[in-house]
Specification:
The chain is mostly beta strands. It has helices at 34-45, 65-83, 92-97, 100-104, and strands spanning 2-9, 12-21, 26-32, 106-107, 113-118, 122-129, 132-148, 157-174, 177-186, 190-196, 201-206, 210-215, 223-226, 232-237, 243-248, 252-257, 263-268, 275-279, 282-287, 290-295, 302-308, 314-320, 323-328, 332-337, 342-348, 353-359, 364-369, 374-378, 383-389, 395-401, 406-411, 415-420. A hairpin with a 3-residue loop joins strand 11 (201-206) and strand 12 (210-215).
Length: 456
């Protein structure tokens, strides 16, 4: 980032910015007034209070070349200080100021989208099992409406109460289309999902704390029990499908026998959970500012390790082998080596991370954000390779299909899209040399997982 000079026009001064984004091999120029820098600093101070100062304003005329050169140097130092900080170097305000999306993002190639289907609802959770696609979906429903009159008013007071409801649906791909194989509607919002291929059982958690179990040959709930006093935030089945482990807004982790619905243990969590996943025999819980590991035992989970991130709000998680990819509200995707209990490199994007997918064969991390962009990072070169814009207004679901080498995504458009990556995004050989992210702690990227075995 350089400010090589400035120009004057109609009494105004415009500073020339030369932006060099080496990760994408992109360069461009911008012209900014001093007031643009002031607006940037004001926007950043709302989230980051310790922002470096700008040079003071002056009443001098724009013809004072010596002062303008002084301000040029100070403005370049200001931008350099911002870009040197990992916590705000890719903040939305700074990226908008630098016109990042206009010069880095590319539209989706027409040949990339191979199939799409309008589901009519927004995907909440999704699972891929062989040739089955299992989704929980949400929609709005008008549940109540009432009106009454005040004695001194001549017009009625009306109120409408809207709440979320949803459904669970299973699809199978048949040729160039998706066939709906099974569906059940819910009167509450589904918030968690898991599926047992062994039992043919779909387990759904709801915003009212209930957990329902459905066998795919029946649309009626075959099991139903209340596990939490708030929304269910995560559902997992043990390896033998004998127990279901759930976490909820009430900050409790509960294990329930799947046959007699008896609670086997109940423990209090350190915070409200965002997500929970298995890593071998260990439970990995994601909380707003913490990543915790729990050793799962018959007597209950034991907290074994904690990694705190007080400066970030954590939004979602994807576990790949021994690596946990954690999205943040600030646009970073943090990496943790679970086996070494250490934080690795940081994958830097724009906008709050809403979904993460991982391709093991291509050695790539695919990140969706609340701006509707898809950002792809190579785990071989440790660099950002592609940013695709204009797919969705907000990406809510991402999944990588290893068998078909394609990406499944959805958002507020309620379309489920299948994207076949172009040939230029070639599959990388499995024996390609890779980097360890712990050896590059300052890199704004993430290293490859090749050779990191999935735990048994």
């Amino acid at each position: 980032m350089r400010i090589p000079g400035f120009t004057t026009s109609a009494g105004s001064v415009f500073y020339t910015l030369q932006v060099d984004f080496g990760e994408c091999n992109a360069q461009w120029s911008l012209e900014k007034r001093f007031s643009h820098f002031v607006a940037l600093r004001v926007g950043l101070k709302e989230t980051y209070p310790d922002i470096p100062p700008l040079p003071p304003k002056t009443m001098l005329r724009t013809s004072d070349q010596a002062y303008l050169r002084y301000r040029q140097v100070e403005l370049q130092s200001f931008l350099a200080a911002l870009l040197a900080r990992k916590d705000l170097s890719r903040s939305p305000a700074l990226m908008t100021f630098l016109a990042y999306e206009e010069h880095i993002s590319a539209p989706l190639p027409k040949e990339t989208e191979t199939m799409s289907r309008n589901l009519g609802k927004s995907i909440r959770k999704g699972l891929l099992f062989e040739d089955l696609l299992v989704f929980t979906l949400q929609e709005h429903a008008l549940l109540s409406r009432f009106e009454f009159y005040f004695s001194s008013w001549k017009v009625p007071f009306r109120s409408r109460k809207r709440e979320f409801v949803g459904s669970t649906e299973i699809y199978r791909e048949e040729g160039d289309s998706l066939a709906l194989k099974w569906k059940t509607d819910h009167e509450s919002l589904p918030t968690a999902l898991t599926y047992s291929l062994q039992l043919g059982l779909v387990l759904v958690g709801f915003s009212n704390g209930q957990i329902h179990g459905y066998f795919i040959n029946s649309e009626e709930a075959k099991m139903q029990f209340a596990a939490h006093k708030g929304a269910v935030r995560g559902l997992l089945l043990t390896a033998d499908s004998a127990q279901v482990v759930s976490v909820g807004e009430d900050r409790r982790m509960v294990a329930t026998d799947i046959h007699n619905h008896r609670e086997l243990f109940d423990c209090v969590l350190p915070d409200r959970p965002v997500q929970v996943e298995w890593w071998g025999q260990t439970l990995v819980g994601l909380f707003p500012h913490t990543l915790c590991e729990f050793t799962y035992q018959d007597l209950g989970p034991m907290l074994s390790h904690t990694l705190e991130q007080p400066n970030f709000t954590l939004t979602c998680m994807q576990i790949c082998g021994n690596l946990a990819l954690v999205g943040t509200q600030a646009g970073l995707t943090l990496t943790y080596r679970l086996d070494k209990k250490q934080e690795g490199a940081r994958l830097v994007g724009i906008g709050a991370v809403t979904a993460i997918a991982y391709s093991d064969t291509r050695k790539e991390v695919i990140v969706g954000n609340d701006k509707g962009n898809i950002t792809i990072f190579s785990l071989i070169s440790c660099e950002l390779t592609t940013v695709i814009s204009g797919i969705e207004s907000n990406v809510t679901y991402l999944a990588w299909d290893e068998a078909g080498q394609r990406l499944l995504l959805s958002g507020y458009s309620r379309l489920l899209r299948f994207l076949q990556f172009p040939p230029s995004w070639a599959v990388l050989p499995s024996d390609t040399a890779v980097y360890d992210p712990l050896s590059r702690p300052e890199a704004h990227s993430v290293a490859s997982l090749s050779g990191w075995d999935h735990p048994v």
